Write the structure tokens for this entry.
Amino acid sequence: MRRTILEPQHRFNASTEMEAAVATRLLKFQLVLILLILVTQSGRRKKTTHRKRKSIYSKSEKNAIIDSLAHPLADEHWSFVIVDGVLHAVNEEDPIQSLFKFLKYNAPELLKRIIKEMH
């Protein structure tokens, strides 16, 4: 019987066997706890940031495709120079910058070809 509240109900004789049994039970309990934590953690869905879907081709690759399609046709008729400029503007998604690029790079050659065709 216990004499005070602070005394344990059962008195054990400390032995190495008892300590080994307690240590084994404690180790098993810790392993079960770790496994439970791992299982609960792996079941949670991780928050993912919403990224833009990566397109198949980059802008520069799309520009190269447009050039490879439109430039041979532009050699045949000047109107394909305008088609080339419009396709590049759609790809770049900046119409003002595309207009300036068109005027800088394509307009002089386009004017020469139109004037040549008129004469």
